[in-house]
């Protein structure tokens, strides 16, 4: 029986989700003539793997220009713009913005942007670089032959006159041939950029550039449904190397001092036809040279043929790296990186501890979150550039705590919600050119939604996501239940447990196929109980769903609990007890027996973090939540090879994909699913919690811990106010905004002082 049908009509009129709009009036989609005859497809609805066809258009760079006159001073300029796959916009030679954020064609994002400050009285030029990747991967929905630019610029001038500039056949177009045919890197994530600068139109963004020989663009029909998200364009800022050394004749070495993500820029003038080679890498090899054949399947070796002019080499795709080498360079060369990420105000958070390692752990987690927050929350900005739901649950939570900015989390929740149009049980990666699935990832959607609500107080979005996504998600998994309510299997969705496989603590995986599994059923129970929490917050109830939760709770004990060992087995009939099969029921409230709970705490202490960094977040938080904060703190700060200190010993400058490189052959050096120390410290060690959604009221409830190192911490709230926390000599001092209500919930041994400021 449908458990949720009675509620599906409750929120159908909600406008919390971005609505399908068409802001472009009569503007046309203009495209590179090379794409004019390409037939669009919707293969992303059915692709179960990377099904890239090399014979279809790919790696298409195109320049568009439009020059116009303003006879009067511009008062206001409103721009509506998007492109497929990507655009970079310049106005009168100045960089303005790039995008769009990722999306499916049936919910395709556009930007509305104020460009008033870029416009002048007299001659103006719009210059747009578009790129159609044409690959079938996890980065964007490409390979569907949808490409081109659509924009509308509405200008108000002195006297109230309106000037409208739109994409149409009045534009000029140049199919760019400077970006040469190349191999792909990562998981067909992007093409290498071997560039022939002799074919590049230098200074093409400038107003007076002569584009008279350029072509008229082709146009194509619009089959998109456009949506506008309340998000900001990507931030792009120049960052210069912290170290530069000439290693030999024409060989330059650069170190940025930390992991960085962005576009490398090389200002150079050399002999026409001279070829330079550019290497990027996240680490050095045994000879101290850049390891450009990166662990993460990215072979960052690219060749550039110089034109003989003064030029800045325009790498278009971003890379993740720390080191750069330039080989065969001319005498005078300047190199920097245009670092890019979602806007990230470093002034909104602060952390310092007398424990130097704790401060370093905090810093690598912050850098990882910043660099993995792009148009979405990426697993890593190198190998896949993919927004995985399991990763996003952790990264978005860290981002919310650090920035008090809920916009990117909301957009990510929307992305996964609309993936239900492709796969009712949600895809593991969204948006994506093909369908990838993991059962536990889908089941974490309600957890991420609830965390968003805690920080935002956005009840309308909560309602809408419940209706459009969560009910359908639970209906999907209901099909795979046994009579006792447990999931017997998860259909086409594989069960991940943890990743990589060698960090599953020998979970009895193979014998668990097509029979109840403790890990996925813990996540299933967590999804249901979180949904009940959401319903309660909205003043609703669902007795059938509540009854289902109670049934699963009882069945979980009967099937998985070994009452002699007081531990939970991995799968039905198994004699193996993993860290995962015990920490997850503890986390989700499936352990109510005090003796069993004590047994599990002892088991966790003996195991340590013998798991991946992903599940480690659940293990540690389970200890904090369920009454053993000392164990949670011990795990968070442990010094074994399964620790964040091990990342520091490995030389990490951003949090890693695994504890150390030896644990995963294709490890990325920037993977923010290991950033959980940030929110664990904020919420449990410092004890800051939203007592009311949206931080309308503050709860102060630090964990009852013994001696701690000195800590100073700053947390900013959505209204711009902030709270400082000082832990010094085990005295906790809180300075809270004068206008904020708070409740103190602490009966531990340490002194707590709360002051209004």
Helix content: 10-25%
Please provide the count of β strands. Answer: 33
Instruction: Report the portion of residues in β strands.
Output: 25-35%
Shape: globular
Low-confidence stretches: 1-14
- How far do the termini sit from each other? 55 Å
| Individual helix count | 14
CATH 2nd-level architecture of the largest domain? Alpha/alpha barrel
What is the SS-derived class? alpha+beta
CATH class category name of the largest domain = Mainly Alpha
Please, how many domains? Answer: 3
Give the radius of gyration: 27 Å
Mean pLDDT: 96
Described by strand count, sense and barrel closure, the largest sheet is: 9 strands, mixed
Topology of helices and strands:
Elements: E1 29-31, E2 60-70, E3 74-84, E4 86-91, E5 94-99, E6 108-114, E7 122-132, E8 148-157, E9 162-166, E10 172-175, E11 184-185, E12 190-191, E13 195-196, E14 218-220, E15 226-228, E16 235-239, E17 243-248, E18 251-268, E19 275-281, E20 301-305, E21 311-314, E22 319-327, E23 333-341, E24 349-353, H1 356-372, H2 389-403, H3 407-418, H4 439-443, H5 445-456, H6 459-478, H7 518-537, H8 543-560, E25 561-562, E26 567-568, H9 579-587, H10 594-607, H11 613-625, H12 629-636, H13 644-649, H14 677-685, E27 688-692, E28 697-700, E29 711-716, E30 722-728, E31 731-736, E32 741-744, E33 751-756
Parallel strand pairs: 6-15, 13-20, 28-32, 31-33
Antiparallel strand pairs: 1-14, 2-7, 2-10, 3-6, 3-8, 4-5, 4-7, 8-9, 11-12, 16-23, 17-18, 18-21, 18-22, 18-23, 19-20, 19-22, 24-29, 25-26, 27-28, 29-30, 30-31
Helix pairs in contact: 1-2, 2-3, 2-5, 3-5, 3-6, 5-6, 5-7, 6-7, 7-8, 7-9, 9-10, 9-11, 11-12
